[in-house]
Design a protein that fits this description.
- The chain is mainly α.
- Helix content is 72%, strand content 0%.
- The chain has helices at 3-7, 14-41, 44-49, 60-86, 92-117, 126-148, 150-155, 171-175.
- α2 runs antiparallel to α4 (60-86) and α4 packs antiparallel against α5.
- It is elongated and about 65 Å long.
- It starts with a helix and ends with a helix.
Amino acid sequence: MNDNNGLKGLRGWLILVGIGVVIGPFRLAYDFGPLYYSIFTDGSFEILTTPGSDFYHPLLGPLLVFEAVYNSLMVLASIYLIYLFFSKHYLFPKVFIAIALLSLFFIPLDAWLGSLIFTDEPMFDPATTKEFARTLLSAVIWVPYMLVSKRVKATFIENMPNKSGQQEISEADASA
């Protein structure tokens, strides 16, 4: 028996990763879906983006659209991450790390852009600080795990191209 066979599978700490991966898109959709839906359907967007309105700022419209598009893409990326996780696809660790690092970059960027519009508000309000701390803690724990874990290396091997550029045949396909 190969040493990696004992480590292969969605077990151990990967169970916690899997729980987070499955909850992720639902959490994003729950947090941001109703907010953006109401902004874009109840007339708020028009009020916020109409010159002469009391609430108008020329950067507010582009910021709201940027945030809505980013969060929608993150929901889609998170759904794709679920597929990669359960199919044990070799791209899972890379995509997981990319999403974690992108989130770490986006939160301060979004806070900074918001501070350009809402100059009387602190750049990092309590909600932004909490979200950034949660994202940072998650990245500090799980990114190194994805990079060094023997279980990750043994599990996420499906559809991995071999050195000649062709895809390797998975164990299930080889036995068929």
